[in-house]
Amino acid sequence: MTRPERRPAPCGLSRAAPWGAVGLVLLSGFISVALWVDHSNPVSSTSEAGPTSVVGKPTPSSGEPGSVGGSGTGSVGSGISSPASHPSVSPQRPYVASTLVLFNDTLLPGDFLAQNGASPGGVVYDPGTGQVFVANYYSANVAVFSAGDAPVVRTVAAGQDPTGIVYDSARSEIFVTNSGSGSVTVISDGPALTVQTILVGGAPVAAAVDGSAGAVFVVNEATNNVTELSDTTDQVVREIPVGGEPSGIAFDSGTNQLFVTNSQSATVSVVSVATDSIIANVSVGVDPVGVAYYNGTGRVFVANSGSGNVSVLSDSSDSVVANVRVGGQPDSLVYDGGAREVMVANRGTNNLTVLSGATGDVVGSIPVGNGPDGVGYDASAGQVFVANSNSNNVTVVSDVSNTVVGTIPVGAEPVAVAYDTRAAEAFVISAFSNVVSIVSGISQKVVASVAVPSFPDAIAYDGGSREVFVGYAASNIVSVISDTTDAVVATISVRGGADGLAYDPGRGAMFVSDGTSNQVSVISDLTNTVLARFTVGSHPEGIAYDPGRHEVFVANYFSGNVSVVSDATNRVVGSVWVGTNPVSLAYDSSLSEIYVANYLDDNVSVISDRTNQIVANIPLPGHPASAAYDPGAGEVLVTSSLVRDDVSVISDSLGAVVATVPVGAGPGDLAFDSISGQAYVTNYLQGTVSVLFIAHTYLVTFQEEGLPAGARWYLNLSANAPVNSTGTLVELNLTNGTYQYYLGSANKTFEGAVQGVMFVVNGDGSALAATFVKSTFRVTLTESGLANGALWFATVDSVQQYSTTPSMEFLEPNGTHYFRVTSVSGYASARDQGSFAVYGAPAVVFLSFTAISNVPSPFAFGPIDYVLLAMDVLVIVVGTWTVVNLRRRAREPPPTEIYDQNPFPTEAEGVDPGPFGEHRP
Fold it and tell me: Can you tell me the distance from the alpha carbon of 822 to that of 827, in angstroms, rounded to the nearest whole number?
């Protein structure tokens, strides 16, 4: 009988069914729990925040940005508009290579802004001769002028760094303390001005005279003592120790005592002249410096520079009886016996404070010069003289009206310069030093000084005779200096003062404008005699020679025109009306034009020498004073006198100012050396000469990388104007030196890869990369609601971070970005994902978490909960029934028919069973 086929499926089902049922139950439970958690979330879906908050996002500008990175950075200016691929390149420009300081003949690199040529400090009046003596600190001399006349009449050499000065009426002598050389210079006020030098202590700074005893007391700041000198023998008598850093001294004739201010000790030492001993030390204000005695009330006035007040002492009690507030940094003071007032010089506020000698009250304030240092009194005229150390002059004040009645310049004040191309030397004249300084064009140092008459005013070089001609506006003469011997070889009389000079090489003649005579004198450089004179306009000053037309152009200051003179006939052949007060001229050999500086019109008129007509008027930033032509660059250099301390550079092809070069204070005259390319500028108010130089330049290129095509980018280079371009290449011509550059882009998506890169130009050009990269900005994700130290995760785009603090930061480029916040156990998030924008500024994204504090009861069901629960029960019941039924069927015996249908043979049928009892065919 055949057995039926064995079916393994029922047995297999009986083993897997329980696990399948359990899987269905668990799946159902998971679904229910998920739905229940979502349904029971206490935060409503309608409470989510609105759009992402971004802090600092600027409004995009539709216009062209004006700086690198637009409003995001200010490191680069608006730039110079230029062609797309090749921005405009500035031509070579002059700059101050060195500064010659005339008062000590020192050459300093660059544009050195010196304090002034003389720096006058001490000042005293000599009633015997009616003269004023001023100690010039930097010039190491004493300027002497009459109290009735403004000009300085002579200078007397003193020691190094003269500071204090006092008059001895008994001997008619001036005593000058030289702080730098530790000496006292004694000057006789007689016609010969004889000089004696006495060595004293360290750094003598002030002195006082006891006329009855014939003694002079000198304060030595460095050695903290007072040296007593005999004014009869000019010998040191004795030394008296005082306080720390003594700086001022006054003699009290009523008590026969000295009052010495000790700036470091903030005290006044009262010294008995009879016993040479200190009888009291009186505490006063901070940094006491100047001191003065008023015999009418027995009061001593002390200027406290550090505390800005004056202490009033009684000489009977040696104590402070009052403190009076004055100006800033009171340094020196003097008692005015005529007005019975004390004049206090306030260095910090540039004024005089007037105190009543009787009450000590402030009764007036008078503005003076810059940095008032010393004060002197003239009893006969009722005037006070104030030495202004920083403005290089002396202010004269009337003690009747308490007003300024005069100002007297002192010290080295260069007013004109001429250049000798053969000897490579510049000749500089100083108005009040009465010397011509000869400067080597190679070493830029003073190699010689030539004494000349008083108040030289104009200068010119004669290449034919190799001589320098010096004119004097006040003395109607011309001095001739040989550039070989550096000495005056001739003196020529002219008319009306020599205000301007020009050399005519064709005739071998020097043309001299005689200002007050309205004439021009023609001097032969062979015979040094006047060949001819002819009349021009009113008060001729500037003068220039035109070799192309063989004509002389003369600027007539008061008539506002330029006279054109033929050098063959010495006749005026034309007249051109220009601006107000034409003062100087320069000839442009390239374009055959004359440049006229119009002082009060603040412009330069350009005259064609072919038509004698004005072809242009070029405005300037300040009163033009002097002009010179640079043929190599095709430019005219013009100084701005007193208004602006610079030199304007005019392009003769453009007819406009293309640059300004800062120089010293009060630039006046200038001269140009066409061989070396150097220009010399006299700085009248500073006592210096600026040496301008035009250097070789080398091509430096910047290759842009990283920007989209056509994007505008900016290059800001140190010491150069910023440039911009929409191309990939910027070319600049740079002089030797060290530079630093910055990059920026109008497209805020990009920025310079590196900033502030330093590079050196040294005799050769170079190529540099201007690399741009995508700009990134700080993005801060800030959470609120989590407990301190809670760990939370966030992902921006594809970058994940975690933090236990309330914030985390990402660096992202401009554009829109997406974030996602991972759930935190025990907290619900209002926004766990979203987007934010970055546009040229940092951004902040605010997130909030809420603690899940009240878990709902599982029996607090709603309708949907009951439906879910019923589904769970049904799944459980069906699963259980299935398991039980299948197990029951598995235990029932199988039908016998199955074995009858077995297809496999038995052992009895001749087949061996396998190792596991299986039958093998």
Answer: 11
The letter for the amino acid at 317 is S
Looking at residue 779, its pLDDT comes to: 93
Alpha helix ranges (H) inside 177-310 = none
For residue range 149-181, what is the model confidence (pLDDT) as tens digits? 545 556 677 777 788 888 888 888 888 888 888
The burial class, CB within 10 Å (0-12 / 13-18 / 19+), for 886 is middle
Between CA 912 and CA 176 the distance in angstroms is 146
The string of DSSP codes covering 607-650 is: EETTTTEEEEEEE-SS-EEEEEEETTTTEEEEEE-SS-SEEEEE
pTM across the whole model: 0.46
Q: Please state, in angstroms and rounded to a whole number, the distance separating the CA atoms of residues 477 and 496.
A: 9
Q: Residue with structure tokens 């150069």? A: 720
Contacts of residue 20, Cβ cutoff 8 Å, sequence gap at least 6 = none
DSSP state of 814: S
**Angle of the 863-891 helix axis to the 9-40 helix axis, nearest 10:** 170
Contacts 24+ apart (CB under 8 A), 139-143: 139/103, 139/411, 139/412, 139/433, 140/103, 140/104, 142/174, 142/176, 142/185, 142/187, 143/118, 143/410, 143/411, 143/432
Tell me whether residue 654 is exposed, middle or buried, using C-beta atoms within 10 angstroms of its C-beta: 0 to 12, 13 to 18, 19 or more. Answer: exposed
Cβ proximity of 224 and 209 under 8 Å: no
Note whether 625 and 583 are within 8 A (CB): yes
**Assigned token pair, 576:** 């051109």
Strand ranges (E), 525-570: 530-535, 540-546, 551-556, 561-566
Asked if pLDDT for residue 887 goes beyond 80, the answer is: no
Q: For residue 306, name the pLDDT band (cuts at 50, 70, 90).
A: very high
Convert the pLDDT of each residue in 381-399 to its tens digit: 788 888 877 666 778 888 8
Residues with Cβ within 8 Å of 535's Cβ and at least 6 positions away in sequence, in order, are 518, 519, 572
Q: DSSP assignment of 725-773, as one string?
A: ESSSEEEEEEESEEEEEEEEESSTTEEESS-SEEEEESSS-EEEEEEEE
Q: Output DSSP code: residue 86.
A: S
Residue 51: count other Cβ atoms within 10 Å of its Cβ.
9
Q: What is the DSSP string of 139-171?
A: TTEEEEEETT--SEEEEEE--SSEEEEEEETTT
Cα–Cα dist 836/818, whole Å: 7
How is residue 262 written in tokens? 């000790």
**CA gap 221, 240 in Å, rounded:** 13
Q: Is 323 exposed, middle or buried (0-12, 13-18, 19+ CB in 10 A)?
A: middle
Beginning with the edge strand found earlier in the chain, give each strand of the sheet holding 267-272 in spatial order.
246-252, 257-262, 267-272, 277-283
Q: Which of 127, 200, 194, 136 is nearest to 167 (CA)?
A: 127
Nearest to 206, CA basis, from 311, 320, 303, 339: 303
Rounded CA separation 661/94 (Å):
7
Q: Strand, coil or helix: what is 213?
A: coil
657 forms bridges with which residues in the sheet? 650
What is the total residue count of the chain? 921
Q: Which two tokens stand for residue 339?
A: 């007005």
Map tokens 């809420």 to a residue.
850
Query: Looking up tokens 């070396």, which residue turns up?
Result: 676
Flag the least confident range among 134-148, 395-409, 529-543, 732-746: 134-148
Residue 214: phi and psi, rounded to 5, are 65, 40
| Residue 261 and residue 291 in contact, taking contact as beta carbons nearer than 8 Å | yes
